[in-house]
Each structure stands twice: as C-alpha cells, then as structure tokens.
Design a protein that fits this description.
Elements (H helix, E strand, L loop, with lengths): L7 E5 L6 H9 L6 E5 L15 E2 L5 E5 L2 H10 E2 L5 E8 L17 H8 L5 E6 L3 E6 L2 E7 L4 H16 L8 E6 L5 H5 L7 E7 L9 H7 L17 E5 L5 H12 L21 E4 L13 H10 L4 E4 L2 E2 L2 H5 L1
Parallel strand pairs: 1-2, 2-4, 3-5, 4-6, 6-9, 7-10, 10-11, 11-12, 12-13, 13-14
Antiparallel strand pairs: 7-8, 8-9, 14-15
Length: 327
C-alpha cells in the first residue's frame, strides 16, 4: 500500500481501528500535510508494536485526542521537521498524569517540541466551566479534560513540563490567564503566582447559581504575605472583565487595596518589589444594552482610572476619552 498523494488524514470516532493500522497508513503517506486522530478508543500500545521512525517531512498540522500512552508513542516515532501546529487533548481521571506526555523527555521529539514552543511571545492559559483547561504555547496547544482530579494542579504540572523545554527563550515569557465561568480558590490561583508570571488576566462568564467571581476579585486586593511578591499576580499589567454590574463594588475595593497603599517602583525587579506593578490597561465588556456608551458609566470609569494609577480604560474595545466625556 502506497498512498503517495494522501495529504490529509482525519479519523474521528472510527470504531475497530487499531494502532497497527494507523502506523501502516502513516508509513505509506509521505506527502501527508494534515493529521487528525480523535477519540479512537481502540488504539493501544503493546510490546509487539515496533518503534521504527516514520518520516512525515511535509506534515505541518497535527491534532491528537487519544489515550496518553498512544499519544506519547506516536510522538516518539513520527519525525515531522516541518510541523508548526500541534493540538493535543487529554482525558484525565487521575490514573496517568498529563505531564507524562512529555516527561520523561522523548529524545526524538524534543527538537520538534522546541520548534513548536520557541516562537511564543507569551503563554495562554485558560480554565473553563466543566473541568476544561488549556495551554497554548507557541504552536503547541494542550487541552485537558479532567474528572475527579485538580484541574489547576494538572495544568500547572503541564506548564512546568513544557517550560523545561523552553530553555533561555522561556525565561522572559509571561502568561495570559483566562478564567471563564470558573471560581478558583486563592490556593488555586497561587499555583500561577510564580514563573512564568501572569501579565494579563481575563475574567468572564455568566456566574449564575452558585458560581461567582467575588473570591477571585477579592484576591487581587489581598496581601498574601509580607515581602517581595506579596500580592497575587504582581506583574499584572492588563485586566479584562466580562462581568455584570453587581461586581462593580468588589472591583473598586480590590483596586483601592492593591494600588493605593503605595505606588509601584517600576525600576525594581519582580523579586524585590513590595507592591504590584501598575496596570497599563483595564478593559470592560459588561453592562446592559442601554449601557452601550461609556458616558453611562462615566463616574465609575473615572474612579477606577484614579484608583489604578491612570491606566488606559477601554469600554467594549474602545479607548475611553475622559476629556471628551467631561466636555
């Protein structure tokens, strides 16, 4: 079998597929550009399966949603020097840690992994309702779906595993953290209060029933301990809120506590700074349809700007001009 012209292979929830079948197709598809293997429950790795490398020199895009041992096995045998986008999804129940995909290192895959993550300008981390979480690190995306395990600790472990591959390029990276309709405890948030530091925070969601961002908002205004890095996310420069009016008061109090006790000394490093870095931008996307114009919230926006040390304020993606509003 020689599939010389096959450029795209997509298998999604196909029954009765075994690992040997996949390897046979890949080994005979040298022109493959796109590979997607998703939810193929029949795939297993056994001692009888050989580990002969498969060269896919034209492969640029790969997506795998498979059992972790199968994903790790495929990464160990596929040689894809042109790969620039890979998405990996994992279903976690506590039996196998997600970080085991890349640890211990897969020697043959290490150059490819470094090539995927090295272009990163920052790292995207997102937690969503329903125990979903994800990391986007350059050209690599990892999605975790957790059951009966701590999704925050799992993602932290995965982040640490990937950072070990980033070398000198990863030393200056920051993270953009998104909390979408989830309410982490302070203990969860503190997992991300170290390198790579959070630079941008997005909070969104309906927050109905028993879910509320109040604890998270309050955590921003709470001194954790004395000394350096004594505040949550001390390198935070951008906040984006997609919330309802009822959280105005909590946000005002958090900003007053966080920034009014003392102003940041921008020349000091994150390891010696006693107070958090000043905000550069605050984005608001909440409000009813009648609140589509920033003038409706003029007093609130001015107060927020003063409390936070005069950052740029955006209302629904438009920079607020306070001089114009005062005219």
């Amino acid at each position: 079998m020689r599939l010389s012209n096959l450029s795209k292979l997509v298998l999604n929830q196909v029954p009765h597929v075994v690992t040997e079948d996949i390897l046979l197709v890949l080994d005979n598809s040298p022109m493959l550009v796109t590979l997607r293997l998703q939810e193929l429950g029949g795939l297993r790795v056994s001692d009888s399966i050989g580990g002969v490398p498969i060269l896919l020199g034209f492969l640029t895009t790969c997506a795998l949603h498979l059992p972790i041992p199968v994903t790790r096995f495929l990464l160990s045998i596929i040689h894809a020097p042109s790969l620039h986008r890979m998405d990996i999804s994992c279903d976690l129940d506590g039996s196998i840690p997600a970080s085991s995909i890349f640890s211990p290192p897969i020697i043959t895959f290490t150059p490819t992994l470094w090539g995927l993550i090295s272009p990163a300008k920052y790292i995207d981390i997102e937690f969503e309702i329903g125990e979903h979480s994800s990391i986007v690190f350059g050209g690599l995306g990892v999605t975790l779906e957790t059951t009966n395990v701590d999704q925050y600790q799992c993602l932290r472990d995965m982040l640490d595993s990937l950072m070990s591959y980033s070398g000198a390029n990863g030393a200056g990276l920051k993270t953009h953290l998104t909390l979408d309709d989830v309410e982490p405890d302070l203990e969860n948030l503190l997992l991300f209060n170290c390198q790579p530091m959070v630079e941008e925070l997005t909070v969104s969601g309906l927050f109905s029933y028993d879910s509320s961002p109040t604890k998270m908002v309050a955590a921003l205004g709470t001194r954790i301990h004395d000394g350096p890095n004594s505040w949550l996310f001390p390198e935070l420069e951008v906040i984006k809120f997609y919330l309802a009016d009822e959280f105005y008061g909590e946000f005002e109090m958090a900003l007053e506590s966080r920034y009014c006790e003392a102003r940041t000394t921008e020349g000091t490093s994150a390891t010696t700074r006693q107070y958090p870095r000043s905000l550069k931008e605050i984005h608001f996307h909440w409000g009813n349809s009648k609140d589509s114009e920033p003038e409706v919230k003029k007093d609130f926006l001015k107060k927020i700007c003063a409390l936070a040390g005069n950052p740029k304020i955006f209302w629904r993606d438009v920079l607020v001009d306070f001089d114009y509003m005062s005219a």
